TrEMBL record:
Source species taxonomy: Bacteria, Bacillati, Bacillota, Bacilli, Bacillales
CDD domains: TM_PBP2
Signal sequence segment: none
Protein name: Carbohydrate ABC transporter permease
Span of domain ABC transmembrane type-1: 63-254
TM regions (residue ranges): 62-86, 98-119, 131-154, 175-198, 233-254
InterPro entries: MetI-like (IPR000515), MetI-like_sf (IPR035906)
Keyword Iron-sulfur (UniProt): no
Keywords: Cell membrane, Membrane, Transmembrane, Transmembrane helix, Transport
Membrane topology, record value: Multi-pass membrane protein
Amino acid sequence: MLFRKFSLAVYALLILIPLLMVALTSVKTLQETFRDPLGLPEDGFQWSNYSAIFQEQTMAGYFMNSTIVTLFSVVLTLFFASMIAFGISRLKNWMGNILFGLFTLGMMVPAQVNMVPLYSLMLDLNLTNSLLGLILVNIAVTLPIAVFILTGFMKTLPRELFEASTIDGAGNWQMYTKVAIPLSLPSLSATAIFLFVMHWNDLLYPLLFITDNAYKTLPLALLEFQGEYSTNYPMLFTGVIIASAPMVIAYVFLQRFFVAGMTAGALKG
């Protein structure tokens, strides 16, 4: 027990110390950062870094682009994945296994392998430098993992509930919306958190498809603080704090729905 507590304390310190360094650096000047990277700000906390990053670096637009891409990607991916998972879970023959296997194969292909053909396709469709293009790519890339997670959960739902719904005259759409979705809220919440983190932090596809500043997302915009010979660490870490805040808020917000979904599922079961 003592060793476990000691290990958890060490693990917590390994996480907290970098976070504290990032937070302290975000309220320093560039000179203070290079003079004393681990020390407290000598000239007071530079809260102006947070206002300057929006005023001078047009971060508000980048923040809005990330918000649009992430929200639409998460909602649409969950919508399509939940319908596909419901269909696969209802198929108890070889066809369901084949469909599930095909989506599982999609998880095995590294993103780097698809970069060249995917870029050629998006270029032909005139979807480069477009938020719509990023949303479509995000859905296609994360749909297999979302289907994998949701299918595993929906297969555990009692078959008797769907048989009773069929006897009451419910069709597939009614069973999907009235039975499967309410009982799958825990899995949907967990998948939503997972997708949100993936889409919000995504750098590869914006770097691949976006060159116009008007369509840059927040992770891509943070690269502007890294020059060839120098890096503006205070502004970079300020951007990191701002970029991380929505993920923390979303996790806390969805965690409440996660617990509520588990309770609802238990009551309905």
